[in-house]
Sequence to fold (81 residues):
Amino acid sequence: MTYVICQPCITVKDKSCIDVCPVDCIKGNDEDPQLYIDPSVCIDCGACVAACPVNAIYNETEVPEEWKEYTKINADYFTKQ
Fold:
């Protein structure tokens, strides 16, 4: 299981989640519209959820219906690297 960064992160990219991630699985370049969680590295600890100031991070099983596509968007970001 993994966590997913969804629509509220777009243009915000606060990066508080990066600071608390124990496995450094949250990435994003300055030109990217949002941050992304690498599903192959995420250990499902949930530390990023509390750190996010815009409530953009969800467990993949709890992603709101309107943001379901972000599960694939996060995963695809790491297959392009």
